[in-house]
Each structure stands twice: as C-alpha cells, then as structure tokens.
Design a protein that fits this description.
single chain; 2 strands; 479 residues
C-alpha cells in the first residue's frame, strides 16, 4: 500500500511541474513578447530561442539552494512543532499560484509569478501563525514594486525611444545616422546585459566578482561587440539594397498626416453649418477621415521617405532586440525557476528530515523538472501573453521593441544594485507603456492596460484567499 508520504511526494512533483508550466505560459512570454509583436521574430522562433535560453538558465545556473519560504515573508519557527502543516501549506501554495497563473494566462494578463507564490504563502502563513508571523516590511517592498518597476522602466523606455527618434529617424539619412550611433549603442547594450547576467543571471554560481571586476569584464565585452557590430552594419546595408524590391515599406510623410488632420478639423466645423441635405454626406466623409488618421497614428517616422533607410534601421534593431530578449530570458530562467522548484525542494527536505529550516537543497533533477515545465508552458500557452505584450498594449516595431527590452534590462540592473523592489513582469509592461507614451496616449490601448493593472492588484489577495481553501482540503485528506 502506498504511504501518505509517497502520495504527498507525487503531489508535490505534479504541483511543482504545474507551477513551472504556468510560469512558462505567463512570465516567460514577457521576455519574447516584444520581439514577436515587432516582427523581429516569428512566434515559432521566439519559442525555440526562449525555450533553449530559459531551460539553460534554469538547469545550469539555477540555484541549488532555495529559501524554504520565498522572500522570507513569514517566520519558519511557527512550523517547528507541526512540519505537516508546513507541507500542506506549501502544496496548497504551489497549486493556488499555478491555478491563478493559468487563469491569468488564459486571458492574456501578464502577472508576476513571484507575487503569485508570495500571496499564497502569505495566506497560509497568516492562517497558521497569525498576522504577527508575517514580515510586513517584506510585503510592503513587494507592493512597492507595483509602482517602482513600471514607472522606472517606462521612464527609461520613453527616453531611449526619443533619443533614437531624434538621433536616427529625424536625420536626413537615417541609415547613415544608424551607422554612427549603432556601434556606441551596441557597446552599451552588451555592457548593460553583461552586468545583468553577472549580477542576476549568474548570481547562483557565486563567482564572487566585485563591482570593479564586473565593470571591467562588461566593458571589454561591450568594446568587442561594438567593433564587431560596426563591421556587420555594412553587411546589413548590402542585404537591404539587394532585398529592396522585395520589402516595400510605405511611410506616410508628416505633411500628408498634417493635411489630413487639418481637413478633419475643417469638416468638423463645416458639419455644424452645413444644410441638412448634405450634413449626412459630410458626416460620412468625416468618419472616414477619422479612421484614416487613426491608422496613420501607428507611424511615427514621419520625416522618413526612403524605404531602404527605414528597412535598414529596423533590421539593425531587430538583431539588437533579439539579443536583449535572449539575455532577459536566460536571466529569468536562472532566477524565477525558484518559484516552482523552491517550494517543491522545501517539501522534499521536510519529508526527509521532519524539520523546517530556512534553506533547502535543490537536487539537479528538480531543476531539470522546472526547466522542462517552463519550456512546455511557453510552447503551449505562451502565445496568449506574448500577444498582449507585443500587440495589444501598443503597436511595436523593432526600434520600439528594442527600446522596451533594453530599458527593462537597465531597470533590472539598477534595481538589483540599488536594492529596489522589482518585478520582471511589471518592468517589461512598464517599458512597453513608456514606448507607447512617447507616441502619445492615443497610441495606447487603455482598456488592456486597465485589465493588466487590475490583475496585478488582485494577484496577492487571490493567492492569499485561495490557498486557505486548498490548505483545508489537503489537511482533511491527509490528517
């Protein structure tokens, strides 16, 4: 007959795999959403690249030691005399967080997987130890990330995108301007991403690199990349010339947009004064003009008339965007796999020792399980959140997508070094929002943004309340 511990172990593995799947379906899609939305990558290629990098980050550099309580939000000593309650609570937390993430993914809402598991652990912590067992300062810092992450990344994305506009697109020869700016930009991209990798993606390897060594290595990487990038720019330009007839890009001029907008305003005034017999016809013309002007809002490279230049600039930034998205995916896999494998490792450790400790070992097979779950989740349901990030918030091009990805990387770097609360999900959404704001609020889908913000606000409460019901069900079954 199968023992209760064996059943619990099987459930823990299943819930951990389910949680990893949910992370892949929701959180991982954030890293590649802008690349798919801008057209830099097809959905299939994005899934392949993200799967390889996320799995590599999770399995090869994922932490082999995990906190038993994510983010240290509750005291472990409240379970000293009742480790069974801890096991039921962690099982309930995994299942609750996974279910909420699946619901959010179904609707295409990008929510924080860390906040999901934290909310669930918070709920059963209050249930067992009361409000005094909670480290409310930790909770406050997590709540603060709802504001800090998106505001900081949106501000940086807004600045980066406007710099690109004025330094490249608003120049007489954008491709020529790109060839001047791109090597410097490539240097900073590799410099920042290398630091992100060392401070966040590789922190579990405990390389013990101080800030000076990290800056030196990142500088060397950036200089080499900038030199290589300068050589590749000429090759990209030659490819654009060869493909010129195959990739027509029609960019409306600023004068055309202005004239149509002015015509709309004049007709609006004329409708009020027009005789009744022609007012209806003028209204139809006015509605058509409004539709045309709305369609033209997606173009913000108004002064550019040369399609070779536009295609060349966008192709350069497509490569940079893919690169930055890849770095974010690798760092994410290395860190956030802990949201699935951490509770699983904690349950296994308590089953073996009967003691709830602050840290729990994470065997390689658990990291393998987490990595596989993330990849499967991304491949099966990841497209839903990718669609929201890449298409529904605002219209993206490779330059806009790059601005969002790079600003997210900078925000993650700054926050990790300054000790600011951060959420990768909120950071990426904020960055896309900042790019949209650079084109005006009319470029943003406010209904989608409202739904996203609401999903953020209810993530922790949903986890805290939902875990109570599942906890009592598990306790009833095994007690």
């Amino acid at each position: 007959m199968i023992s209760a511990d064996t059943v619990i172990l099987i459930l823990a593995i299943f819930f951990g795999l389910y949680m990893a799947w949910s992370i892949g379906a929701n959180d991982v899609a954030n890293a590649m959403g802008t690349s798919v939305g801008s057209g830099a990558l097809t959905l299939k290629r994005a899934i392949i690249i993200a799967s390889v990098l996320e799995f590599s980050g999770a399995f090869f550099v994922g932490s082999h030691v995990s906190e038993t309580i994510r983010k240290g939000i509750i005291e472990t000593n409240i379970f000293a005399s009742s480790p069974d309650l801890f096991i039921y609570g962690m099982l309930a937390a995994l299942l609750t967080a996974a279910i909420w993430l699946q619901i959010a993914s179904y609707f295409g809402w990008p929510v924080s997987t860390t906040h999901s598991i934290v909310g669930s652990i918070l709920g059963f912590g209050i249930l067992i130890g009361g409000f005094s067992a909670i480290h409310w300062g930790k909770i406050a810092s997590i709540v603060a990330s709802w504001v800090v992450s998106p505001v900081l990344s949106a501000s940086i994305a807004f600045i980066i995108f406007n710099i690109l506009r004025y330094k490249i697109f608003y120049q007489p020869d954008p491709m020529k301007a790109t060839k001047k700016v791109a090597p410097v930009l490539i240097f900073f991209v590799f410099f920042v991403l290398s630091l992100v990798m060392m401070f966040k993606g590789l922190k579990n390897l405990h390389l013990n690199l101080n800030l000076t060594h990290s800056l030196l290595i990142s500088t060397i990487v950036g200089l080499v990349a900038g030199f290589i990038g300068k050589k590749l720019l000429n090759k990209i330009e030659d490819e654009i010339i060869e493909d010129e007839d195959e990739q027509p890009i029609n960019i409306p001029s600023a004068r055309l947009k202005f004239n149509l907008f002015r015509a709309q305003k004049r007709i609006e005034k004329s409708v009020e004064l027009a005789p009744h017999n022609i007012k209806h016809r003028l209204t139809e013309i006015l509605n058509q003009l409004k539709d045309v002007n709305s369609e033209l809002e997606i173009y913000d490279v108004d002064e550019v008339a040369d399609r070779k230049n536009v295609a060349g600039v966008e192709k350069v930034f497509a490569y940079l965007q893919i690169l930055s998205a890849g770095f974010v995916a690798f760092a994410h896999g290395a860190n956030d796999v802990a949201n699935a494998v951490g509770p699983l490792a904690a349950i296994i450790a308590v089953l073996k020792t009967g003691i709830v400790s602050l840290k729990a070992p994470v065997p390689p097979w658990i990291l393998l399980l987490g990595g596989l779950g993330i990849v499967i989740g991304l491949a099966t349901w990841g497209w839903r959140v990718m669609l929201t990030i890449g298409k529904k918030i605002t219209e993206l091009t490779p330059t806009r997508g790059f601005s969002a990805e790079f600003s997210a990387a900078i925000t993650i770097l700054l926050a990790s070094r300054l000790g600011l609360p951060i959420s990768t999900t909120h950071t990426l959404v904020g960055a896309v929002l900042g790019v949209g704001m650079a084109r005006g609020f009319t470029a943003l889908n406010m209904r989608v943004l409202r739904n996203i913000v609401v999903s953020w606000l209810i993530t922790i409460p949903v986890g805290a309340i939902g875990v109570i019901f599942i906890f009592y069900i598990l306790k009833f079954i095994f007690s």
